[in-house]
Amino acid sequence: MKNIYLFLFSILSVTLPAQTYYWVGGSGNWSDISHWATSSGGNQYHNQVPTETNNVIFDQNSFASANQTVNFDMAEAFCNDFNTLAVTNTPAFQGDYYLDQISIYGDFKLSSNAQYDLKSLNMLKPAGDSYITSGSVYLGGLCFLKLDGGANYHLEDSISVANIYVYNAKFFSENNPIHCSARFRSNYFLGREIHFGSSHVYTPEFVVTNDLILEADNSTIHLDNQSMVFGDFDGAGLSFGDVIFSGNATIIGSNSFNSFSVLSGTEMEFEAGSTQTAQNFVFIGTPIESVNLGSTIIGTQANISQSTGIVNGNYLVLQDMNATGGATFNANNTADLGNNTGWSIIVDIPADYYWVGGEGNWDDLNHWATTSDGNQFHSNLPNALDEVIIDQNSFDVPSELNINVEATCAEFRMENTIEGIEINGMEAFHCYGSMNLSNGTIGNFHLIYPEGNGTGNTISTNNATWGDGSVFIFNSVGEWQLTDSLRAGRLEFNDGVFRSNAFPISLNDQITTGGVAAPELDLTGSSLYMHYWRPLNSQADYILNAAVFYCSNGDFYGNGLNYDTVILGGSYFAIESDFSTNVLSVEPGCALTMEAGITVTVDFLELNGTQAEPISILSSEPGQQAYFQQASGEVNGYYLTLTDNHAIGGADFIAHQSTFNSNVEGWQLQNGMEEINANIQMYPNPATDAVRLDLMQGEQFEFYDAHARLVLRTEIANYGSNEVSIEHLTPGLYFVVSTLIPNRNSRLIVY
What we know:
Layout: H1 2-15, E1 20-23, E2 28-29, E3 36-37, E4 55-57, E5 69-72, E6 76-79, E7 82-83, E8 92-95, E9 101-104, E10 108-109, E11 115-117, E12 120-123, E13 129-133, E14 144-147, E15 152-155, E16 159-166, E17 170-172, E18 178-186, E19 193-195, E20 200-203, E21 206-208, E22 213-215, E23 220-225, E24 232-234, E25 239-252, E26 255-262, E27 267-270, E28 275-283, E29 291-295, E30 302-305, E31 310-314, E32 316-318, E33 321-324, E34 328-336, E35 343-347, E36 352-355, E37 360-361, E38 368-369, E39 387-390, E40 400-403, E41 407-409, E42 411-414, E43 422-425, E44 429-431, E45 435-436, E46 442-444, E47 447-450, E48 457-460, E49 471-474, E50 479-482, E51 486-493, E52 497-499, E53 505-513, E54 520-522, E55 527-535, E56 541-543, E57 548-557, E58 562-569, E59 572-576, E60 579-586, E61 591-594, E62 599-608, E63 615-619, E64 626-630, E65 634-638, E66 640-642, E67 645-648, E68 652-656, E69 659-660, E70 664-665, E71 667-670, E72 682-683, E73 690-695, E74 701-704, E75 710-713, E76 720-725, E77 732-738, E78 745-750
Parallel strand pairs: 1-4, 2-5, 4-7, 5-8, 6-9, 7-10, 8-11, 9-12, 10-13, 12-14, 13-15, 14-16, 15-17, 16-18, 17-19, 18-20, 18-21, 19-22, 20-23, 21-24, 23-25, 24-25, 25-26, 25-27, 26-28, 27-29, 28-30, 29-32, 30-33, 31-34, 32-34, 34-35, 36-39, 37-40, 39-42, 40-43, 41-44, 43-46, 44-47, 45-48, ...
Antiparallel strand pairs: 1-3, 36-38, 72-73, 73-76, 74-75, 74-77, 77-78
């Protein structure tokens, strides 16, 4: 009989409905069980946080006052249904930085009478239907909505979120709008389906894979990317309804469309060799903002195909584009940059654009004359074929030229201008040839794109500056070289050839390489001043002969390259990755962090700290060593603080007047009489009451006893011989150290 009761109890236990959790008590943490009541507004509480079987409800009894906050403080929170539909007093639901994995196994229904800043929403219902109501409010700028588990997910209103990922799921938008501020993706799992119906989908990036069942024939996708981060459209060879592109976009793979529209100002690249097929192509450029179409690989065409009708493109910039399929492709007012076929191109004849009238905006046609100081004006803004000239007739007094729209020209030339002209780069600047500033120009450029595939293009600064915030981005296969020193913010090399011609380069930020091409970066003989050196592209050709790197308050990513001279300074610095160099010098006062496990190989290592500004060297991972390697000779470091450092290679590594913390190997510590080099003229020696010292201008000396205690500091005196009283010193051995000149020291015997 007992066994029968136990069996019946077990049956009843598994069939009992899961308990519902009601939030009470206003602000608090998800992990705090004193907020989880068994009834709405109740004072009986659950003894644990919700699990995947429990429905979670936030209602009119959850928040007594306005703007109270629920914090998702757990690494992962669970529930079945998540419901805020009945809340009052506009509460806030706040996630920690990528730590609030909220796993939901039922429906997700939100009130518009609340604020949400969520991070990761994992929809994990294993089967059946799940319904999502967002209240048409934004769920957070870092929020990832992940549809997974195998269920059918249905939108009940518009949704606005940073990211949507469709994994093991079937997604039905039910014709509702979808807004993603970062990306829409679907990949990894078989059996995925997306049914857009007639939805409008707004996203900077759209990426799917071809094992997806996609129903998008009646939908409209708006790919609007105004940043340099997103912009990929990878349709995996599937079919789409209407797609509208704006901003910056890269089309990956061969896809099919009902209509393919590109709005003015769009910079679009098509994967080389791919074919986009549409019933209707629309390219809407304007005189102010052209449409730029090109291939991802310069010299290799991409294809667009339309079977019938006429495509009338206006104000285009074309390169490596093949139009095919049977339709007529017209390109009016177009800059033909080469390797275009299948188009009837009405070429915009190259012209000279002279800036006149002083201060103004780039898009104001009243400033673009056909001659120097002329009063006949162009009807369109300059494009990739036109030369821009700013000369002695452009400005009467120092004033501003504002690049207030994305600007393009063939060459940018300043000559004989007055000093004090400010060029403010509010938008990107594209130049398909040489560019130069005049002496005295105040550059405040933003993004500078040296474009095209020509050789012999020059960049001339003429003792001016392109701006501390300016970023040169080299994406094209052409060649650029300096004619004088360059002052800018940042250089980014993704393709092409750059030659410094031994001129100095001063940057407010960094030099970096990226992309998948193989740029050539020839910095032979240049002195390079920057905070960060990041040669991240392993395919690039780095020519660094006799180049001197001066880097401060940043990091140096060696990338296994060979250098001539590297000088690191500032109050802090980091070394990442192995490298070798003839000379490595660390300046006084620098706290140097070396990536754990790396080896920096040198011919000459200079580590000359001072007592006032010692050098600190440590590893990025406590307990794990980083390595200096020098094959021969002697390394003499002064005033060092070493932690987790190992000196190897055969040379003698000697640390003078230094401190060893934990895990230091290969170094010799010498803090005694061996330190003394009798290079101070001091007499008499031994002495009793006074000693005469030969001082440099502004020099002081410090006297230390045999226990390294400071006992006397001289006053700053005149150049030459100065008498110092030592009558208060007790007899013994003293060490005398200059505060002005590193390693200038001696010993004194007092009797």
